[in-house]
Amino acid sequence: MDIHIALLQRLNLLPTMKTATIKNSGLISRACERLIQVEHTLKHAASEAQISQDAYITWRPLYCKDIFIFANGKPNDTMVGVAAGKHCQFFCSQHSTVSMPTESAVVFMAHVTCDVLQDGREQMVILVYDILCDDDSCQDTPVRDRYANLLKHQRIIETTFQLGEAIFKVQWMGESSCQAKVATLQLPHEKCGIVEVGGRVQYQIHAV
User: Residue 7 sits in which domain range?
Assistant: First the structure.
C-alpha cells in the first residue's frame, strides 16, 4: 500500500483548515517550511559532507513518512501537516488524544513508521524528534535547547498521545560524536541513514 494512503487510513485523517488561523499562521508557516525542506532533502543522495559539530543526530527509518503535528490545550485544534510538493496539506484525526497541558501552541516534527513487535505484530509509531514553539524569540533556538524542551514533554507525549492506530515516542537524538552509536542501534524497524538536525540546514541525511 502507498505510504501516504496508509498514513491517512491508519491515523484516521480527514482534510481540515480549521486550525490554520491568522493567530497560528506564523508557527504553521515555519512548520511547513521545515517539512518542505525535508521533502527536498529526500530527493537528493545522502550527503557526504561532515556533520556539523553544533548539530544533533538521529536515525531515519527506512519506511517513513514525515509529518508535523500542531497542538495546543484544545484537543479539537490538533492538526497534522503533510508535505505535498511545494505546499502542505492539513488534516485532523477522528481519533486523537493529542493535547498540551497549557494553551500555548507547539509543533512537533516527526517520523511516522511501523515497528515490528516481538510477537510479529506491527505497531505504527510516531517518532517525535523536534519541537517548534509559538514564540518569535524561539525561531533561532539551537537544536540542543529545542531537544531539551522536547524531553520536558516526553512523559505526556508517550503516555497520553495517540493518533489513530499510532502511538507516540520521543526519538533519541544526540551529539554528532555519537555517529557510531546511531549506526549500530538495534531498532524494531529498519533504518536508512543518519539524520543531521539543526546543522548547516535543519534536516540533512547522511549514509549510515
Answer: 3-45+64-173
